[in-house]
Structure formats: C-alpha cells, structure tokens
Amino acid sequence: MDFTRIDAYIDEHFPRHLARVQAFVRQPSISGEGAGMREMAELVAGSIREIGGTAEIVDTPGWPVVYGELDQGAPRTLLLYGMYDVQPVAGEDWLVPPFEARVIPFEDRGECVVGRGVYNTKGPLAGLFSALESVRTVEGRLPVNLKFMIEGEEELGSRNLPGFVARYKDRLRADGTYFGFYAQEKTGKPVLWLGVKGILFFEMVCRGGAWGGPTVRGIHGSLGALIASPVWRMIHAAHTMTAADERITIDGIYDTVIPPSAEDERVLADLARTFDIDMELRENDVLRPKHDATGAALLRHYLFDPILNIDGLVGGHHGAGTKTLLPHEARAKMHVRLVPNMEPDDVRAKILAHLKTIGCADFEVRFEEGYPWAKMSPSAPISQAMIRSLRSFGHEPEVWPNIAGSAPFYLFSRVLSQPFAMGGLGHGGRAHSPNEFATLEGMRLFEKSVVRFVDEFAAIRE
Amino acid sequence: MDFTRIDAYIDEHFPRHLARVQAFVRQPSISGEGAGMREMAELVAGSIREIGGTAEIVDTPGWPVVYGELDQGAPRTLLLYGMYDVQPVAGEDWLVPPFEARVIPFEDRGECVVGRGVYNTKGPLAGLFSALESVRTVEGRLPVNLKFMIEGEEELGSRNLPGFVARYKDRLRADGTYFGFYAQEKTGKPVLWLGVKGILFFEMVCRGGAWGGPTVRGIHGSLGALIASPVWRMIHAAHTMTAADERITIDGIYDTVIPPSAEDERVLADLARTFDIDMELRENDVLRPKHDATGAALLRHYLFDPILNIDGLVGGHHGAGTKTLLPHEARAKMHVRLVPNMEPDDVRAKILAHLKTIGCADFEVRFEEGYPWAKMSPSAPISQAMIRSLRSFGHEPEVWPNIAGSAPFYLFSRVLSQPFAMGGLGHGGRAHSPNEFATLEGMRLFEKSVVRFVDEFAAIRE
User: A360, A380, A399, B89: which has the highest count of C-beta atoms within 10 A?
Assistant: First the structure.
C-alpha cells in the first residue's frame, strides 16, 4: 500500500471525516434509555454501504446488531467489531451540550470534539469507515475482506450479542477480529491491551415486606422507632459483601481465580517500567490508589483483581433540603469484574448464596446476562501485527496483559475461536463521565493507524 | 359561649372555610426548596388581619416568622403556634397533583382534600382562623387574647425559631401555647399527645480525597480495581452507627437517656389498652413492627427509644439502566430523634467523635440546629382543658406521654416557661408521603373542637 498517498488523502479529506464523527455523536443513542437507537443503527448501516459493503440491521430481543460484509476476493478476512451505543448523561454537568459534538479547545489537549460517545466509541467507529474509504479510494481495493458486527448494547453488558453470534456464527467466520478505539495516552504513547475482564451486572433491592419496613411508600421518619428501615438493612447487607479494603467477602468468590501466568508476569514487569500511575491518577483527579503497592504489584491488583463495584446506591429522599422519611426501599446497582477463571454463572450463584446466608434471601436481585474475560497472547500473530503497525509511527507501544474494563471478546476467542486485537492511535478520555472528549489530531492518527494495521493483518501467514 | 350557634355558623359557612383550606394548600411552600414561601407568609398574615388582629412578617436568617396579636381585653392570653411550610414532593407518585387541593373520595375515608400539607398542617392552620372568625362573629369577641407565631421552617427542624423566640421573648408571653392539628384516628378516637421528641438532622458526605477515591466526578467503574470507592466507604462507616436491630451503636449516645417516669409508665399502661398497633401498621402498609414486643413494651420502644434514621442515601448512578461508574461521593441524610434527657449538642459531639474513632474524620458532616424533647404532665391544667374539650364530643381521648415525632416545643416549656397543648379533632394522614389527605368532615370537627378548647382554656384558674 502507498501509505504516503493514503495519509495525504486522509489529511486532505479530514474536514469531511470529522463531520462523520460529529454526525455520529449528534445522534443520541443511550442504550439504557432508548431514544435514537434505531436511527443510529441506520447511520452505521449507511456507512457500511457508503464504502461499498452490504449491511443489514438484525433485530435481537434488545437493540439491533448492524451486520455487514465487504468481499474483496482477498485471501484473508477481518471481522470489525464495534458498538453504536453510549452511556447516559442524566445528572451530569457538561461544559457544552453532550450531543452537539462541538469542537473546542479542551483543557491542555488542543482542539477536541467534546460530546457523549466521541471517545467511547463513536469517534473511532466513524474513523474506521473513513480509513477504509481512504484505502479504497487511493488503492482501488482493500487487501482484506471485511465483515462488520456493530452492536447497540455494549454499555448494557452486550446482553444480546451472544445470541446474535450463535445465530450468525457461520457468517462471522474470519481470520481475526478488530475493535478500533483511541489508545494513545496524553504523552503520545500508544497502549495495547491484549484482553479484557468479564462483567456481571446486578441490581439488588431491599424493600419492606414480611420482615418489616414500609412496603408501599416512604412514611414519616418518626415511625423509625416502631418500624424497621430497608435502607439500614441494605447497608448492613452490603457491608458483608466487601471488607474495609474492598476485597470481596462473598464466600467462595475467589475459588476460581487463578494467579497471573508466567507470560502475564513478564508483560506486567515490562508494563511497570513505562506505565505512569501518577498520570493515571491525575487524569482521574485521584490523590492515591486503593492499594499500598507500587509497580508491578499495583498493576497486578489493577489488572488481575476481581472487584465488586457499586455503580449507584439510592434510598429515600436525595433532593435538596431535609425530609424526615422512613424509605420503603433501597437499591444498589452493582457489578463484578471477572478475571481468569471466574465465570458469570458461578459468581451469580455465589452472590445469591451469600444473600441467603446473611438472611437476605428476600432481596430482589436482578442480574444482567454478563460475560467472562478474554485474552490474547502477546506472541499471537494478530498481536504482533498490531504492535508493528503502532511501531511504524515511531512509538513503542506499551503492552498490557489486559484492560481493567470489559468487553464481550470471549465471543471471538471462545465462541468463534478466532484471535482478536484492539486499539489504535488517537487520544480522548472521560468515558462514562461529563466532558467526554477526543482530540482532532488523534482522529487523523487513528485513521492512519487503522490503515497500517489492515496492511499488517493482510500480510499474516500462518 | 353558645356552642350551638357557633357550630351552626361553622356548618353554614363551611364551603368558605373549605376554600380557605384549599387556598392554603394551593400555595406551594416547600421550605426545603423555597418557591412560594413569602407568598404563603403573606396569606397567613392576611388571615390574622381578617379576623381582626395585627400581623407582621418577621425576617430571620431563613424563612420569615409570621407574628400576630389580637387583644380582646381578656384576663388570659393564648399563643397560637403553627407552621406554614410543607414537605417536598419530588419523585413522589400522587393520585392528583399535590398542589391543587382537589376534593375527591379517598380510599375509605369519604370526601377528602388530597394535597401536600393539607394534614401537616395547612388544613388545621386554616381551620384555626375559621374557628376564631366563627366565635368572633357569633359572640362578638373571643374569651382570650391571642398571639400568633407561625413559622416557615418546621420541616427544616425549626432552625431559626429559637433565634426568633429569643428576640420576641417578651411579646410572646402568654398563659399557654396551642398547636392545632387533626388528631382523630380513622375510628373517630381522639388522641392527645403530651410531648414531642427532639430532633437533630445532619448530612454526612464521603467524597474522594487524600484517603483515595475520585475527587471531582464519577469515573469509569473498571477503575475500582485501582481506586477506592466513596460509596463503599460510606457503607462501611454507616454500618458502624447501628446494629442489625437498628439500635444506635455510636459510643455514649445512650448515656443521657433516662427511663420513662412512673407517671409515663402509668400513661403507657393506659395507652396500651386502647392503642391499636395493627391499625397503625396497616395505615402505613407495614406487615410487622421492628421489635418482638407487644403492648406497653412495644409502645415504650416507639415513644422512648432514640433512633438514628436515614432519610435518604445516594451515591452514583440511580437512573434507569446500567452505568459502570465509580462515584466520587456518597451522601446520607440522617436524623436522630432525641428522648429525655438527650441534648442536641451532646449528640452532635458524639457523632463527630464516633466518625473520628472509625477513621472517618474527613467526612463532611453538616448539622442542622436541632432541638431537644419537650413534655407536659397529663395533670397540668392545660392538658386537662384539652382533655375536657375532646370529651365534650363524646369520645374519651387516648392520652400519649409523647408523640414519636418532633416539634420545637422546648421553646414553650423551657425557654418561655409556659405550658402547651396540641391536637384537636379532625382526621387525615400520609404526612411526608404521596396522597397526603384530610377529611372534609374532620375539618368541621376541628373548628368546633378549637372553639371548645379556647373556652376551656379561658376558664383555667391557677
């Protein structure tokens, strides 16, 4: 491929490529709420068709999956996985409206698009299409065949993706899967993650019932001398689920956890040399980590510890002012991050057994589907293709054994039995937070890095 | 007084008196939020002037107090205490809009006004004015001089009333104080409370800081493996403040609590004969009380136990759907109900000492002013005047040593050193809850019972 000409094409057409990113961000698609989801799926399908592919919007019991194909008669096929949904914005305080995709100078990052989803992951999704379009225009054809699987429920734990993959298993066959996103740090250092943790979401509700407490509505707070409180019961129950250091205290939950492998430990040791924990904390406005550890030991906690996180906790009056109220229910939205070899079904059973043990079998517990962890070896050809494509920009990538976050990549590694890679150049931040952003400069670099990766992937000989 | 003619006047003019109740309810005045507070104070001052009194709206550092006088050249003076503020309605699900004061048949109570504040306590406040107007019209004059002190911060713990009482101490002198409200049960049984618990509100906030945790905004939930959670810390801290049975476990908090007196125990024993705990639970849609006790023992818990209540608890995402979030703060709105001889300052100090002991001295704790308990003897002349006025309607009142709720009556008993009484006929419910209501029939009875009480009070010879 003629990278010089392709890069020049990307630079020349960047205003139009930026507009594609903005169009994606301006179409709200909060999967947890619903508005705009179908319109967003249409936008994605339209983009696949624009670059010459076929696309269909495939219904699931939840939000549809956009499936597409682009046959180039090439020897190798790459499956492009992505997501078109974003996180909620309710209650958040933004510098600019979250769905206007305004270009502003943001903090010390230069010109950025600020908007929900621009980093996670509508910016990279739009960038993929722009990169592919650029190669096709300059080269006439792509060096690989493509398949597309762009889901609308990543932020809900990809609850219907397993069903879709089961139905489309044969059509999804490829030599590898790629999930593109901006993976450069503020310093320019590219980061490569080889795997993901799994996740299991659940909501736990304690409400008044046969045990006591108000059953229908909150009542006058003075009645607390006569009637028990679902909020206190929730606090005492939740307290039994972690220790003061947040280590999970649900019986047996660590039984299936295995320590990092020798290869993991080597990657951890390398990583410890370049990973800047202070920058990570600063980026998140955090003054100290959770553990009294440094270097590889701290990274081991970060990447290999399962956690039980409280995403949200609410009971009673939480508006302005005082209100003497004995609430009738308390709710905790929680999730467990699953590390090797934790399985969602096993963790679910242990949570329920724990609640039974502590006398809280009457709590309503609603689990989302959940999925396990997934990992690639750093020596796998697809990992090496990604490493080479990043190196070609003059940066040595920082290789992580896995990311602390979650994605349903077990569907590739375990269900489809094909290797996967993720990331790319580009820079952004504040995923799941106000003022989510991505830099304009990073958007160009992302497109260029996708072009290099596709070229390296096409060259793999196994 | 000619009760027959006064009662007939009340019945004849009831449509206008009902309209006064509705006008009060239709003027929103949520002290915790602010809108309409001054308009409501004007309405109250206008009502005092309508019945021939003088009124002024006296500014305080918070919402104003409406102070009024009506001199009748009588030997005795009665101070009428009341409140013009109401509880919030945000997030509540009402049958009818909460500020329209619609008259509807409500459950099994017949025709009712349903609206925020109609029971607690705008209905009785409007009824006081209607009763006084009725006596003046029929009799030409009242048998007592009146003073009025109607505050706008009762639902905020009467935080500026002590300051007002200190400033107006001389003008507030009277032979007794009366706080009118609907105190008939569904069965028609009138209930007389001789006292109140005290209260101390506080809000406890745990946010990220030097100890760890995100300090500015919620961050991605996967970071929970590296960064500590203010929500978990709040749960572990709150857990140390009560036992599983909700007994307060803050060191030393029971040190000043004294057991009920011999007179209290006699009243408790009487009360246990008529108090219908099952009805109380049913009214509140509660299936069982907090304590394994019955009769006087259960009442002793209800009326003589201090409690630490959680009015509201919130941290992180509590909207629809899932959101993987590590919140940057958790908030608990709490209050302690104070029984003899707990004092707010002492309790405040013990809460702070407890937080220090458990390593949470960095929590932000914002206390409201708070006030102690207050009680009258059942044999006090003002108590006997109230008992006789209720008996005159053919019901034997059920006498309670105190109510489980709170009001700043220590200002009367301790600061002004004058006796107080509260209650009256009338029926309503759902204070601090959706579908707060009061019966139309009870509104008439309340007015008539106020007339009898004023007559009995005028006749006290001490």
Answer: B89
- Class of domain A3-196+374-458 as given by CATH: alpha beta
Closest alpha carbon within chain B to A93: B217
pLDDT tens-place string over residues A283-337: 899 999 999 999 999 999 999 999 999 999 999 998 887 788 999 999 999 999 9
Fold (CATH) for B198-257+306-367:
Alpha-Beta Plaits (3.30.70)
CA dihedral sign of residues B313, B316, B321, B325: negative
**Chain A hits for B315, Cβ within 8 Å:** 310, 312-314
Pairing of strands A329-338, A198-207: antiparallel
Alpha-carbon distances, residue B265 vs A36, B32, B269, B299 (angstroms) = 65, 37, 6, 10
A251 pLDDT band, cuts 50/70/90, is very high
- At B131-156, the pLDDT tens digits run 999 999 999 999 999 999 999 999 88
Cα separations (Å) of B60 from B158, B160, B168, B202? 11, 7, 12, 21
CA angle B376, B379, B385 (to 5 degrees): 90
* Residue boundaries of the structural domains of chain A: 3-196+374-458, 198-257+306-367
Q: Which of B227, B322, B432 sits opposite A323 (nearest CB)?
A: B432
Nearest to B321 among A88, A298, A316 (CB): A88
Asked if domains B3-196+373-458 and B198-257+306-367 share a fold, the reply is no
- Tens-digit pLDDT profile for residues A109-122: 999 999 999 999 99
Q: Are B104 and B19 in contact (CB under 8 A)?
A: no
ipTM at complex level = 0.84
The band of B352, judged by pLDDT with boundaries at 50, 70 and 90, is very high
If pLDDT is split at 50, 70 and 90, which confidence band does B89 have?
very high
Residues in chain A, overall count:
462
Q: Where are the alpha helices (DSSP H) in A90-248?
A: 123-139, 161-167, 230-239
Decide if pLDDT at A462 tops 80: no
Would you state the pLDDT for residue A391?
96
With a cut of 80, say whether residue A369 has pLDDT above it: no
Using CA coordinates, name the residue in chain B closest to A196: B222
Contact A281 B227 (CB under 8 A): yes
* β B398-400/B191-193 pair status: parallel
Q: Do A232 and B242 touch (CB under 8 A)?
A: yes
Using CB atoms, pick whichever of B226, B309, B312 lies closest to residue A290.
Answer: B226
